[in-house]
């Protein structure tokens, strides 16, 4: 898909999406493009600035930077136990496993049960890396 800023002979400017540059050319040549305001069929591409996307993997705001730093610190100082989080947290609480910092995945009802049973757990403000794109 490609988006063009278009301009009709009357000076109206509007945007429209096309399957490809060739699709725009074919529609324009056949007279099947019309101004969104006045219906004029003589439509051409208007001058437009490119839409540049920022690198989505890099934090942009201060909040995102702080969250990225928190994630890095947690990942460096704790063990990821994945889906075994509930079992491992309970084992540590009951003295059946060595105490250490862990993080992982838990269903909401299982996390609530841990809290009710006095197991010290807290949700993290991010998803595990294996559950993100």
Give the integer mean of the pLDDT values. 90
Give the termini separation: 22 Å
How many alpha or pi helices? Answer: 4
Shape: rod-shaped
What order do the SSEs take from the amino end to the carboxyl end, as H and E? EEHEHEHEH
Helix/strand-derived category reads alpha+beta
Major sheet summary line: 3 strands, antiparallel
Strand-residue fraction?
A: 15-25%
Number of domains: 2
Instruction: List the strand order in the largest sheet.
Output: 2-1-3
What percentage of residues falls in helices of 4 or more residues?
Answer: 25-40%
Q: How many DSSP E strands?
A: 5
Give me the Rg, rounded. 27 Å
Q: Which blocks of ≥5 consecutive residues have pLDDT under 50?
A: none
Brief summary of the model shown:
The protein has helices at residues 21-30, 62-77, 85-93, 108-116; strands at 2-8, 13-18, 43-45, 79-82, 102-104.
Q: What does this molecule look like?
A:
This protein has 133 residues and is an alpha+beta fold. It folds into 2 domains: 2-45, no CATH class; 62-124, no CATH class. It has 4 helices and 5 strands. The strands form 2 sheets. A 3-stranded antiparallel beta sheet has the order 2-1-3. A two-stranded parallel sheet has the order 4-5. A hairpin with a 4-residue loop joins strand 1 (2-8) and strand 2.
List the helices and strands and how they pair.
Elements lengths: L1 E7 L4 E6 L2 H10 L12 E3 L16 H16 L1 E4 L2 H9 L8 E3 L3 H9 L17
